[in-house]
Design brief:
The protein is an all-alpha fold and 79 residues long. It has 2 helices and no strands. The chain starts with a helix and ends with a helix.
């Protein structure tokens, strides 16, 4: 009886370890996916920021008039 209890505990410990490994792997995958999504969002924000800066700079230099500025601004915002 004592041997079967010991064997059961060993088996249970092994299963618990495998479940913990599975959970850790899934958690790492979720963290990685979340980080990739954050990186993509950051890239999109940076592109919009660069685009807006370039637009303001062109307007400030007189390269585009107010109508063109607001038309492009509207297009940039809607993206």
């Amino acid at each position: 009886m004592m041997i079967s209890i010991i064997l059961f505990r060993i088996m249970l410990a092994g299963e618990t370890g495998r479940l913990q490994d599975l959970y850790n792997n899934q958690f790492r995958e979720r963290v990685k996916a979340d980080q990739e999504q954050k990186n993509q969002l950051q890239e999109q924000i940076q592109k919009l920021t660069d685009s807006n800066f370039s637009l303001y700079e062109s307007y400030a230099k007189g390269e585009i008039d107010a109508d063109c500025f607001f038309r492009k601004k509207k297009i940039t915002i809607s993206r």
